[in-house]
Design brief:
Radius of gyration: 25 Å
CATH class of the domain at 96-288: Alpha Beta
Largest sheet: 6 strands, mixed
Shape: globular
Number of strands: 13
Strand order of the largest sheet: 1-2-13-12-10-11
CATH superfamily of the domain at 96-288: Glucose-6-phosphate isomerase like protein, domain 1
Structural class: alpha/beta
Distance between the termini: 54 Å
Oligomer: single chain
Helix content: 40-55%
Bound molecules: 6-O-phosphono-beta-D-fructofuranose
CATH topology of the domain at 96-288: Rossmann fold
Length: about 550
């Protein structure tokens, strides 16, 4: 059923129409209990969505979408290992990667996947123990001081983001670096700070064929071999992949290869051995706390009613803003330096998953999907793009994330950080009318004509919707839960929009064309059949 023709859709459109002329200030003025009515708590978290442009009726209609789209049925299909990624005929069982031992089987193709999942986790534990305990030695007998993860997309963004997010939990004796870009500047500048004798490379690629990763891996190998010889490869390279044949062909000892499975999508793979560099950075005990947090969020998503379901509420509010208020963008604003890479990570999770042109039947969509996600850590963003959010006359729903306790508690910082976060959501909600601005300027001693001249520049429309998510602190458990929250939000949206969030054909198309252009740029194939622009660009580079 196409979403926009579903019975639940029309009343929502009517509700949006009647709310259109009502300012958020009025919604707060009309309901003393608005904060209590439009906020929810879970495991010490607080989700405040009272500054969203919804009322009780709209919220209740949004919750009806949950049943109308059969979210419970789709959750059961995911948990049951069905091939819900139907264009690739694959299950999406990332939830198994954080399913605790002893809590029952998770079935895929007639087999329980849990023994293999826990065996791989155990292998990670042993390996991290050897590296941290300095038993794992490089070719010259020295212990490892630096780990370089080479991967891209899901084989990079998750562990990279989480390593930064959990800097406060970092193992003191090991530095972990990430290289993703095909541009040699990424690898070259990383290697410039390292010694081959004490460097370990993790080559992370689900397919082990991705051009960027294979090129960077080959260059890293050449760097190592030049310094220490071929024999050093076994002690300085490990791999994480579903393609263990290619890993062996690259020359990595199968004993040093960590496996995962085709039922783990790239952007959902942090919880698998793709998390190895993170586990090296923070230790396997902390990595397991991350898994425990994600599992706790899984259970919450599977069981909570939509009006108390954190991923569900975020999904429903996204649908509301996108499909009924007309937003085509969302700003993600973590007031946490440690979560600075979260917007980039979520760009892949949200836009690669839900940026789709057709529904599950292959028919063109009848509604907008996946707003453009962007953002930056507060307060830095305040001094960059917030001006446009305040006065640029675009509807930009904002999502603030902050922690009650600082992870790096320097005196005087945390209260100011929180004050800025809350001030922004307040300002975006309230705005400041022309009259209020004029009164304020006059009260400050400004002459009446000057106040009248400046007031239009210094007034703000407000009514900009926002959500604020507060966590008690940023630790492995809460980070795991936060990332699982977004995974399930994306899934819930995909169900409502009736799209497959687990494939990424747009990315594959770019890879295919790059493969065709490479021999032309290298002068190994004629520049035939190219459009004039592409031919002109290549001709310039070949001069
Ligand atoms: O970006 C497209 C993609 O296929 C992602 O889904 C994946 O995370 C990334 O490429 C890297 O792929 P691989 O892990 O196979 O190298």
């Amino acid at each position: 059923m196409k979403p926009a023709t579903a019975a639940a859709w029309q009343p929502l459109a009517a509700s949006a129409g009647s709310l259109r002329g009502i300012h958020l200030r009025e919604l707060f003025a009309a309901d003393d209990r608005r904060f209590a009515n439009f906020s929810t708590r879970w495991e010490g978290w607080l989700l405040d969505y009272s500054k969203q442009r919804v009322d009780a009726k709209a919220l209740s209609l949004l919750c009806d979408l949950w049943q109308a789209a059969d979210l419970p049925g789709w959750i059961a299909r995911m948990r049951g290992g069905e091939a819900i990624n139907h264009t690739e005929r694959r299950a999406a069982l990332h939830i198994a990667l954080r399913h605790p031992a002893g809590k029952g089987p998770i079935m895929h193709g007639g087999h329980d996947v849990m023994p293999a999942v826990h065996a791989e986790l155990e292998k990670m534990r042993r390996f991290c123990g050897e590296v941290h305990g300095r038993y794992w030695r490089g070719a010259t007998g020295e212990p490892i001081s630096d780990v370089v993860n080479i991967g891209i997309g899901g084989s990079d963004l998750g562990p990279r983001m989480a390593t930064q997010a959990l800097m406060a939990f970092r193992h003191p004796a090991l530095r972990v670096h990430y290289v993703a870009n095909l541009d040699g500047a990424d690898l070259a500048t990383t290697l410039a700070t390292l010694q081959p004798r004490t460097t370990l490379f993790v080559i992370a690629s689900k397919t082990f064929t991705t051009q960027e990763t294979m090129q960077n891996a080959a260059s890293a190998r050449a760097w190592l071999v030049q310094a220490l010889g071929e024999v050093a490869v076994a002690r300085h390279f490990v791999a994480v992949s579903t393609n263990l044949g290619e890993v062996a062909r690259f020359g990595i000892d199968p004993a040093n290869a960590f496996a995962f499975w085709d039922w783990v999508g790239g952007r959902y793979s942090l919880w698998s051995a793709i998390g190895l560099p993170l586990a090296l950075a923070i230790g396997v005990d902390n990595f397991e706390k991350l898994l425990a947090g994600a599992h706790a969020m899984d259970e919450h998503f599977f069981t909570a009613l939509p009006q108390a379901n954190l991923p569900g509420l975020l999904a429903l509010l996204e649908v509301w803003n996108t499909n009924f208020l007309g937003a085509d963008t969302r700003a993600l604003l973590p007031y946490s330096q440690s979560l600075g890479l979260l917007p980039r990570y979520l760009q892949q999770l949200e836009m690669e998953s839900n940026g789709k042109p057709v529904d599950r039947q292959g028919e063109p969509l009848d509604c907008a999907v996946a707003p453009v996600l962007w953002g930056e850590a507060g307060t830095n963003g305040q001094h960059a793009f917030y001006q446009l959010i305040h006065q640029g006359h675009r509807l930009i729903p904002c999502e603030f994330i902050a922690c009650r306790e600082a992870d790096f508690d320097l005196p005087g910082h945390q209260a100011k950080l929180l004050a800025n976060c809350f001030a922004q959501s307040e300002a975006l909600m309230r705005g400041k009318t022309l009259g209020e601005t004029t009164t304020e300027l006059l009260a400050g001693g400004m002459a009446a004509d000057e106040a009248a001249r400046l007031a239009p520049f210094r007034s703000f429309p407000g009514n900009q919707p926002s959500t604020t998510l507060l966590l008690p602190r940023l630790d492995p458990f809460n980070l795991g839960a936060l990332l699982a929250l977004y995974e399930h939000k994306v899934f819930a949206e995909s169900v409502i929009w009736d799209i497959n969030p687990f494939d990424q054909w747009g990315v594959e198309y770019g890879k295919q064309l790059a493969g065709r252009l490479l021999p032309i740029i290298e002068g190994k194939a004629p520049a035939a059949g190219l459009d004039r622009s592409t031919a002109g660009l290549i001709a310039y580079c070949r001069q």
